[in-house]
Amino acid sequence: MEQLDYNLLFRWFVGLSMDAPVWDVRVFTKNRERLLAGDVAAKFLAAVLEQPRVKALLSDEPFSVDGTLIEAWASVKSFWPKDGSGEPPGPGRNGERDFHGEKRSSETHASTSDPEARLYRKGNGQPAKLAFIGHALMENRHALVVDVRLTATTGLAEREAAVAMVEAIPGRHRITVGADKAYDTKDFVANMRSLGAAPHVAQNTSNRPLGHRRPDHPPSRLCRVLAHSQCASKKSSAGSREPACAKRVIAVRRVSVGCSP
Description:
Blueprint: H1 8-14, H2 25-37, H3 40-49, H4 52-55, E1 62-72, E2 79-81, E3 109-111, E4 118-121, E5 128-139, E6 144-152, H5 157-167, E7 175-179, H6 186-194, E8 197-201, H7 218-238, E9 241-242
Parallel strand pairs: 1-7, 1-9, 7-8
Antiparallel strand pairs: 1-5, 2-3, 4-5, 5-6
């Protein structure tokens, strides 16, 4: 809503003239649950992909998948034990609370601001944050996003979402799917092959090799970079945080670099 006050591109997209007043935030809040329940964002993406000018650009064979961490719009201060225990915060509206020495996990704690958010650490040495994982499926010819998902943060979320998105591709013709080394597992490769997809997965050299597999072609590596840039661009344009009221907002962006495995 704040962007509508000064961003002309946002105003053009929603149909507001330069001097038209912006809607009160309560208008959006009132319809928020209806928009989420109706899955309007997914229907909007489907309608865009059905446009003749867009369909002419889509490829039905080479694809790439990637996931990105989306920080929830909830503070770690709201991450409290589910049984109601724990020391109360300090005085004031946003009182301080010392978490040092306290073991916290999504199994025993939950956010009071966003109960669906889970505590997740992206890697060793990285801080744990309340977050979700966004997933994108991109066709490689014109780098167009054709499917997106948002899931809870689990160790299997990226691969499970990728399988679901590939399974939803119309038809059962032979396709290729590029992915980074986070997808380099025996189960994911087997699932891709069972769906008639040739996995072009970057090898995770820290683990044992999976045996015979199609080589990681340079074009597939380029398309994985583009898929990752799609996720990064959405995060940068949205401020890298995903408010609870916008968990299903979908961005469709064309990149002017085409590639195919």
